[in-house]
Amino acid sequence: MADPKDPRHYEESFKRQIVRLYENGEPAREIKDEYDISHSTLHRWVQGIRNSGSTKAADNRTPEQNELIELRKRNRQLEMEVDVSEQAALIFARK
């Protein structure tokens, strides 16, 4: 099984080939064993192809999930700006 700290990256064509095998009746267990893919990965690819025609996570998110991701990014950016401002204030206070 793959190391979670070093995730694998698969080509889109490979993902589509695996989904085709599954949809043509190949048992999930055989696909997982032969290609060393986890059950959740196989399920995510199949659901992605069925829902949006894509295996990319960004194409399969709800608007709420996209909004949450954007809000988290914005929050991190604002936290960094606050940290920089605090450091600058300390430097100017010393002078």
TrEMBL record:
InterPro entries: Homeodomain-like_sf (IPR009057), Transposase_8 (IPR002514). Gene3D superfamilies: Homeodomain-like. One of its GO terms (biological process) is DNA transposition. One of its GO terms (molecular function) is DNA binding. It comes from the Bacteria. Pfam families: HTH_Tnp_1 (PF01527). Coiled coil: none annotated. This is Transposase. It comes from Bifidobacterium longum subsp. longum.
